Structure formats: C-alpha cells, structure tokens
Amino acid sequence: AGSSPPSPFPSPPHGLPRKPPVAEGGGGAEEEEEESARVFSSYPAVRRVSIAVDETNVLPGALQLIRTLRPQWETERVKTKLFTEGITNKLMACFTDENMRDAVLVRVYGRKTELIVDRANELRNFQVLQDNGCAPNLFCTFENGYCYEFMSGKALGPEHIRESSMFRLVAQEMAKMHRIHTNGSLPKPCLWHRLYKYLNIVKTEFIPSLEVLEEEIHWMKEHLSQLQSPIVFCHNDLLSKNIIYNKTEGHVRFIDYEYTGYNYQAYDIGNHFNEFAGLNEVDYSLYPCKEVQLQWLRYYLQGGSGAVSEEELESLYVQVNQFALASHFLWACWGLIQAQFSTIDFNFKFTLYCSKTPKVSMHYKKK
Question: What's this model's pTM, rounded to 2 decimal places?
C-alpha cells in the first residue's frame, strides 16, 4: 500500500473532472460551515416539531411525534419496532401496515454525538441525496433527532457485500452518488478536519501522545493529497448495514448520512473495503483480495456500461488501498470517543483494530 500510484491519473466515473481540484488544506470548522451553507442554501427549511424524545425510552416520544405527523392514524393501531443495531443513535419504526410500507422512522441522536457529527450538515446532505433520488423522504426534525420515510428492503450483512452479484449493485450505486454535484463547485475534503477534530476530543490517556498522532496525520495528509483522488460527494460510512437491498426492484440504496459529505473518492471506496471484515466480530482476513477489488472497481468505473482500461483500474486500486489506511485511523479515534461518551453498548476492539493494520505502522516507520 505504500507504493506510488501509476500515472496517468485514472479516468473518473461519468461526470467527474479528469483533473479534479486537490485540497491543499483541510479547512477549519468555520470555513467548512461557510462552504456548506453556500452549497446547500437553495434547499428549503425542514419542518421542525418541538418535541424531545428520551433516548433511554423512545416509545412515548415517538408516539407523540406520530400524532403530529400522522393525525389520521388511530393510536391503538400504531405498531412499533425498535431497531437495536445502531451504534450512535436509537431508531424506532412506527407503522400501521403489516408490511411496514407506511412506516415512519424516528431517529434519536445518541448522547454527545454532536461532538462527532454536524447535525445541520447531516440534514442538508439528506436533502441533497433525496433530491437526487438516493434517499427517502425527510418528514421533520425534532429537538434531538428527525423522522423520515422507511426504505423497503433488507439491510445487508458483511457476507452479502462480499458477493459479486451484490457488490456490483453497491459499486454502481456509489458511482451514482459520487456523480452528485450541488452547484458546480467542489468544496474541500472533510477528512482532515474530522481527523483533527476527533483527535482533539480523545482523552490523552488513551493514546501514545497527541504530538505523535498529529505527526501521523500530517504525514497522511501530505502523502495522500499527492495522489490526486477526485473530491466527490461521499457516504463516508458505508458499512454493510447501511446498504438496503430491494429484491423486487433489483437495486440497493444507502442509508444513514451522518458522515456524508465531500471527500476523496478513494477514501469512500477504501473505507467500504475495510467493512468487508465485519463490525462486531472483525476478521481482517476477509478484506477483499486484489482480484475482488479490481472486479468491484471495474463495476464502479463502468457505472453500468463503458470500457475501462487496465491502467486506470490499477491506478485507482493503489489509491483506494492507501486511503483505506486513513479510514482505519479515523474510526480508531471515533471508537475512543464513543467509548468515552456513548450510552449505547458497542464493543469497539481498538487494540485488535490497530493490530490488524501492520502495513500502516511499517509504512510510517519507513517514512
């Protein structure tokens, strides 16, 4: 993963500039917020309901929201389902139809998640994706969350995204998302700002030293920026359960847009490849081999049709595997923050996570 990518820079999928802008800096929080506000200023305000939902007891607040959003529903006919796989939020579905075709999802923000998630930006990104046919309808926001349309289908598991027939759909949907342009300009990637932000929140007793890790980020930024990966509209958190497969319609859609935003193309793909190893029981031997990666990347670059050269395929492969290292670093910091503040029981194996990326440490030592 430490070698330099072959030249020239690969042809990007449909609609992406061949010579994308390269961010010289990560951008501070104020600069990022100003850019985000400018990009998304054309979207209407989302309906707001003045209700706060108890994170530890979602049902009463969820039913109160439903009475506001669906006044025609008879309360005694409303069924609920609490989803238990969330890592940072609580999620409950409210519905009257047995098949959940009319379900309203109530998403309650987890404790202290505002430290790692820009909630205003999340909602704007939701609107962008909805406008481009990539997200369900957003119904309203409330004091500590929002309500949106249920997306029919099956949430995938790690075993599904490793299947060729399924990862073809995932690659094509990611290419579609990466082609989204909000106003013709491309903001700076969010990666570096997030890394520095997370690092500043982590308790110092959990890490070697801030200076060492800041040097590591500085090296990553200097090296990865030179790869000239296009800056595109990314999901940034495409683990398997964030992919919904609709068998009837034969497509997949992505959910959970907390970390969505402009970022490096290769980061989004590399981050997804890391998720092949699973979430609760991590097995890095399941990280896709080169043959599988090249097949996935070919689907991505084709976007459903068109020829792809071996040169551009190999170049993107090298970029993706280098950016996958940045993904490991970011989620390690994220995991420490979650362990410090979250009330949701999630066993984040930080030691295992680091031990399974020896190439990262070896590469940095060589540098």
Answer: 0.84
